[in-house]
Amino acid sequence: xxxxxxxxxxxxxxxxxxxxxxxxxxxxxxxxxxxxxxxxxxxxxxxxxxxxxxxxxxxxxxxxxxxxxxxxxxxxxxxxxxxxxxxxxxxxxxxxxxxxxxxxxxxxxxxxxxxxxxxxxxxxxxxxxxxxxxxxxxxxxxxxxxxxxxxxxxxxxxxxxxxxxxxxxxxxxxxxxxxxxxxxxxxxxxxxxxxxxxxxxxxxxxxxxxxxxxxxxxxxxxxxxxxxxxxxxxxxxxxx
Amino acid sequence: xxxxxxxxxxxxxxxxxxxxxxxxxxxxxxxxxxxxxxxxxxxxxxxxxxxxxxxxxxxxxxxxxxxxxxxxxxxxxxxxxxxxxxxxxxxxxxxxxxxxxxxxxxxxx
Lengths: 240, 109
Prior knowledge:
heterodimer, A: globular, B: 5 helices, 74% helix
């Protein structure tokens, strides 16, 4: 792949989730102005922060007059999961100049991680082209997020009932497409089962904390089963 | 609603923590070797995080558990899951899931 092909590839594999994200940006923009915020607030926030769920949480906190520091701290908690993504992707960016890394870090969202990760795993993306595909995916989502925010702001009240259509299901389906490619061995099944069950049980925790804890428990379950398996295989070998 | 200065400071602060979380490990990537156990654990991040994000969307679309055939999120999710697990073809998984979701949403409406 040349760098342009890689960029196009990154944007292309992001398309299903971009469709799923269409309503989010519009709802964000229209919700912000309907709350009485000036149009520049949601527009600048989408440009500068670029973190969907944290931006929605911030709107909710503005509405009830939450102090600035609490809003910022909440943003920190809500986005903490990105630390897991960056730990995983360190190995693909460490050969790049700092400016490149900064740009890619800014674009490290759930969506771009989910869209590009399978192709790093199966070897289609590597050190030579991976960052171009990553950049392509980021730019596609960034453009989409900002354009839909502006549309939401301008349209104010959107097409009635649009939030009820369930376009977000495209994101669910994409994530399932990615998750199921991993479900080949018992450690991954354990990780899946524990993360899923914990996410449901801990749903009530504030600020996406339930999701974060559930994800960590899922990772732990995977590691645990992997080690138990290794131990049993080792024992089996001794007996044989 | 907050005044302009507080809004600017809030957005700035949100940028700093969000970008900080995403950048801190990248910034040190060239002189930092993750311990083996951590590398091992990171292999489970995609499955664990993505599952934790979608499970409540599928089973609690209205903020309470809906284990019912009347729930299109569950039907679409289940269809995608079965196709995904048996065929391991992401694009087909997405297509079937979305199709079943919208079909059942339409039929149940």
